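Suppose you are handed only these lines of text.
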Amino acid sequence: MYLGRLFVLSGPSGAGKGTICKELLKNSERMVLSISMTTRSPREGEVDGINYHFVTKEQFEENIKEDGFLEYAQVFENYYGTPKQLVIDTLKSGKDVLLEIDTQGAMQIKKAYPDAIFIFILPPSMKELRRRITNRGTEDASTMELRLREALTEIEYVEKYDYAVVNDQLIVAVDRVKTIVRAEHLKVAEGIKDIINRYKEDENAIPID
Ligand code: 5GP
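From them, the structure of the protein bound to guanosine-5'-monophosphate can be written out as follows.
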């Protein structure tokens, strides 16, 4: 059976993962973004069912009990998790799935789905990361410090990923990620039986005289 590929994108808050994901999904019929469930409150402009499925702690814990998550983690005092069914159904349908999750979640995926492709998005520098989080204006001073400290801890995980992409310029970073996706689709492992059969069945390929 032909399966889609599972791409996992992580990186510190403010590295630009979200924007990169959005750009990646534009005009892409082959890739589907998994919408996470979270107990955190929506930020201004965020819509339930589009940015996240916003749920209560009780609802989230119920879903844990029902084995409804591919992975879940506690990030900044809130729960975040990847609903399992949609990911599995999408992969079975032959489409790729993109997960934008933190490093704890990514490490759980790595154990359960070692064939997934792990991409880490890095900010160009800590100075730039601070500037981006400040500009976003959604964090107060103490949350800001927490996010920056957390960013350093997250960055240490980069060595566990398959690819590292520095987001210095958005279009360049998006292009780098697209290159990774394309290269992964060209890997010999994907649909190899189909390829061999296609050549075997092409009788005209062997000259008779
Ligand atoms: P934010 O609150 O800024 O939207 O997200 C905070 C962090 O949670 C980010 O690093 C984001 O990638 C991560 N995150 C979002 N959804 C999930 C998820 O389903 N699982 C895990 N483990 N992390 C997630």
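What can we learn from it? The mean pLDDT is 91. Residues 6-34+95-201 form a domain with the Rossmann fold fold (CATH 3.40.50.300).
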